[in-house]
Structure to design on (224 residues):
């Protein structure tokens, strides 16, 4: 069975501080990993995916298969980064359904 | 807004009543997904359609739940004989069929069973 673990329910950082949102997964095959973000009163939206290896809004995430992790990082947090972040896994070769973690609320304060 | 649309946004119902939610996906998307999200949890997969065919159902989807996508466009999710445990946010998402396609989510229908 596949599982996504986000150990922190809340992460509070000061503006300008580095951010790391943790995500670990368990899956026997080769998964696709994603980070979704939900800003206040908005719908869930894709932030980034590991296959793109891109930086979105200053965020990056590297898939570490040895540690089965996909942590989300940003060197300098901004107020507008405050949101709920969900890590998700999609197993390859199936219906493309997503398995989500429980989410981490990022709170960026001045 | 040309994204995924869900109706209603909120629904309060008495225990034992039936409810039906509607999802209109992005028009060119063949795949449509239903998820449920309870407080403090991430979305959990319920079922998905490719065109009008329902191809997978989670074991979370009890016999009281039924979903349809009759013409491969909009979808409905019905819950019969609602229970308090059904209170949740019901999310719909759609995507294209091609591998790696992004899933776009609707704003959800919040169900409260009293």
């Amino acid at each position: 069975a596949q599982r996504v673990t986000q150990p922190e329910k809340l992460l509070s950082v000061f503006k300008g501080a580095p951010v790391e949102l943790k995500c670990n997964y368990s899956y026997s095959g080769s998964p696709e990993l994603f980070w979704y973000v939900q800003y206040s009163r908005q719908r869930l939206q894709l932030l980034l995916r590991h296959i793109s290896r891109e930086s979105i809004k200053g965020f990056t995430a590297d898939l570490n298969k040895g540690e089965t992790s996909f942590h989300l990082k940003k060197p300098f947090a901004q107020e507008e980064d405050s949101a709920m972040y969900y890590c998700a896994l999609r197993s390859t070769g199936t219906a493309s359904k997503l398995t989500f973690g429980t989410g981490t609320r990022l709170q960026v304060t001045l | 807004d040309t994204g995924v649309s869900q109706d209603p946004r909120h629904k309060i119902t008495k225990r034992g009543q039936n409810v039906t939610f509607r999802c209109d996906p992005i028009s060119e998307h063949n795949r449509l997904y239903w998820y449920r999200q309870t407080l403090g949890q991430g979305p959990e997969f319920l079922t998905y359609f490719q065109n009008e065919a329902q191809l997978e159902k989670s074991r979370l989807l009890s016999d009281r739940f039924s979903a349809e996508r009759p013409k491969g466009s909009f979808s409905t999710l019905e819950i019969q004989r609602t229970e308090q445990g059904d209170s949740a946010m019901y999310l719909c998402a759609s995507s294209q069929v091609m591998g790696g396609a992004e899933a776009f989510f609707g704003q959800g229908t919040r169900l409260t069973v009293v």
The longest strand of chain A covers residues 83-91. The radius of gyration of chain A is 13 Å.
